[in-house]
């Protein structure tokens, strides 16, 4: 699989922030940066700017400007830019399949005719089986020199399918040389769901929280061994996953969350992932489970 970092551009400040984030990521990986704009000529859309040739010149100028910006900021980086003609969602899903990571602006209306980046991004997230990083134009994705806000990963369960999410989070922390905060939220189950025997076992271990601490520790153990240099801080809190995770995201440079692999007819992100995409102030990496 290619380790190229690919960015989908639409001309908004959000997508330019995504390009900046992606350029830094490509530099950390020693990878190439690919800038693309997926363009479909739709003269009937709101925002129609003229004839087809005029719009094509505009999108090519946008790509050239973005390429010039990242090249100036990262002179040693291998960068290429391409205008791709086709449906934006299908085109970006295909681009993601051939990239190490796809980076998109997280929200905002495009300056180009008929391009709603928020809608396109969400559809791409639901359909791709590759990691996607969503970046906002807030400055939070660009820590000051010497800053080390770290990476945060939301751990929703300890099943084997979470391995891809944890592997991605550990790798991102390792390449940055920053701590990884693993956040696990648990909620008190309805009494009827717990048998007397289960309650007795939990009581013998000092309550329910130690049980969940062990669940998190077990989930992290293989990845601690694989990435021994990554400093890991474990956080176990009672409450809904979204409410528990969001405060940690406020102090992170990157939040990593998982989602179920796309299935035919199923296009859901999950409530926690959806909440983080809308409310987390930092860049959010969405990694499909295996």
UniProtKB/TrEMBL annotation:
<dbReference type="InterPro" id="IPR014729">
    <property type="entry name" value="Rossmann-like_a/b/a_fold"/>
</dbReference>
<feature type="domain" description="UspA">
    <location>
        <begin position="151"/>
        <end position="288"/>
    </location>
</feature>
<dbReference type="Pfam" id="PF00582">
    <property type="entry name" value="Usp"/>
</dbReference>
<dbReference type="InterPro" id="IPR006016">
    <property type="entry name" value="UspA"/>
</dbReference>
<protein>
    <submittedName>
        <fullName>Universal stress protein</fullName>
    </submittedName>
</protein>
<comment type="similarity">
    <text>Belongs to the universal stress protein A family.</text>
</comment>
<feature type="domain" description="UspA">
    <location>
        <begin position="1"/>
        <end position="136"/>
    </location>
</feature>
<dbReference type="InterPro" id="IPR006015">
    <property type="entry name" value="Universal_stress_UspA"/>
</dbReference>
């Amino acid at each position: 699989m290619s380790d190229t970092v690919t960015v989908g551009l639409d001309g908004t400040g959000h997508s330019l922030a995504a390009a900046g984030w992606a350029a830094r990521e490509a530099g950390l990986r020693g990878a190439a940066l690919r800038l693309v704009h997926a363009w479909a000529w739709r003269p009937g859309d709101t925002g129609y700017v003229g004839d087809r040739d005029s719009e094509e010149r505009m999108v090519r100028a946008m790509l050239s400007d973005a390429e010039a910006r990242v090249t100036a900021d990262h002179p040693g980086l291998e960068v290429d830019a391409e205008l791709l003609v086709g449906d934006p969602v299908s085109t970006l899903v295909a681009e993601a399949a051939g990239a190490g990571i796809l980076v998109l602006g997280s929200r905002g209306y495009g300056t180009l005719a008929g391009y709603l980046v928020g809608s396109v991004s969400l559809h791409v997230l639901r359909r791709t089986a590759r990691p996607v990083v969503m970046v906002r134009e807030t400055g939070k994705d660009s820590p000051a020199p010497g800053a080390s806000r770290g990476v945060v990963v939301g751990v929703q369960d300890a099943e084997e399918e979470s391995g891809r999410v944890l592997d991605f989070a550990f790798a991102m922390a390792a390449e940055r040389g920053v701590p990884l905060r693993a956040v696990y939220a648990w909620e008190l189950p309805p009494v009827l769901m717990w048998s007397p025997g289960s309650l007795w076992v939990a009581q013998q271990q000092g309550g329910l929280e130690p049980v969940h601490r062990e669940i998190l520790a077990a989930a992290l153990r293989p990845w601690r061994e694989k990435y021994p240099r990554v400093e890991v801080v474990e956080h176990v809190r009672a409450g809904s996953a979204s409410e528990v995770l969001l405060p940690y995201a406020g102090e992170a440079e990157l939040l990593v969350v998982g989602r179920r692999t796309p299935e035919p007819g199923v296009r859901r992100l999950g409530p926690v992932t959806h909440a983080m995409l809308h409310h987390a102030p930092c860049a959010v990496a969405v990694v499909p489970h295996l």
